[in-house]
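To: structure desk
From: M.T.
Subject: fold request, one chain
Message: Could you run this one when you get a chance? Sequence is below, nothing fancy, just the single chain.
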Amino acid sequence: MNEIRYIAASGALGAGVDAGALDRALALEPHFIASDAGTTDAGPFSLGGGQPAFPREAVKRDLTRVLLASRKAGIPALIGSAGTAGGDPHVDWVLDIAHEIVAEHDLSLRTAVIRSEQSKDYLVGLYREGRIRPLDPAPPLDEAVIERSARIVGMMGAEPLQEALEGGADFVLAGRCSDPALYAALPIMRGLPAGLAWHAGKVTECGTMACEGGRGGVITATIRDHEAIIAPFGDGVRCTPQSIAAHTLYENGDPYLHKECSGTLDLTRSQYEAIDERSVRITGSAFIPSNDYTVKLEGAERIGYQSIMVGGIRDPYIIRRLDQWLAEVEAHIYAIVERVLGLGRREWTLTVHVYGRDAVMGDLEPDPHAISREVGIVVAATAATQELATKAAQLTRQPFLHHGVPEWMGGITSFACLHNPAHIDRGAVYRFNLNHVAVPRTKTEMFRTEFLQLGSAK
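Reply: Done. Structure tokens follow.
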């Protein structure tokens, strides 16, 4: 019977790999082990600043467990979206950790390093040829946006991973990568149905988030010509038809259609069946190849530097007229900053988030008028330099502390600062500036693969 078996060791390298469950899962005799290591959930700073979201110690712990298990079983290990955002500095950071692990454990790894950070000249060329298309919604794009981006990555599909596996890689370290592609690449390469391979990858890429029961554990998949079997290993974790169907919907804009580089996963006829108390069978999933091969672009640009102030308000008179009070305070602060620092409203921004009212949902908050007895206030001053942002933040403290309301006569203290000093310098801040796809000439031209030998060849 033609089948591919694999282990998804973790939904996020650095968040934890259950070593005991991983070792027990090797009894499945898997063909590979993989783990996603990145996400845009961490926000634009990681991409723009070239920094990981997890500490080095956590990533080293998890990567060690994955690599040792893969060597014990004699199978490849695949890591995608290295270092959170998958740019060149993120890949280099994880590669350095891998070098350290190999030396400490006397391993030998034929390693394929796949880079996904994009050359700006290359992207400008695609843009001029009409090969960059907006998704919905997308911010405006021109050559200036590309040039001022701190970093742009392309989200690779299965094809660069397949080339690495065909090249005999023991360890594939990939930059920004479609999460399911890590798991779909080998089954598709071995001739198994793309629909089942992509669907199983979609379910397993978050690890045991697709399960019910306890925490920890690892999740596995067996892909065959007519079915995909999803089963966890770990204490108290189990897959049910509901949990697998629910996770199929996770992070999907459409309940039935999920877009990948090479086409669309079609879940219209997918069915979920319990095999036992912990395993689920998926059938009926299909894959619709696209006419154009597209690669999603993710970019981040620096918008300035920032200082913040965190505090709270408990005064019922202020809370009753909070919007008016905040508007008065903001107007007063803008006037002070212009008078003292010479900065007009176009040269810096003051942003106020009201926790306890609408700080999480913003304009989408369905009941913005329901306010509790206290609210938390986060004030952010953003300017062209950290020095200016810091000075602007310092000038916000006094107005927030003492701006009054008609119900109070004389001086009051209206705002309780959480920290001392009240302001906190955040450094550079970034925003995502692309929601587009590129149409490359070939399926792999946007990605650079280099084969390395980590450790002595054996």
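Reply (cont.): The chain has two domains: 4-116+155-294+439-454, 302-432. Let me know if you need anything else for the meeting.
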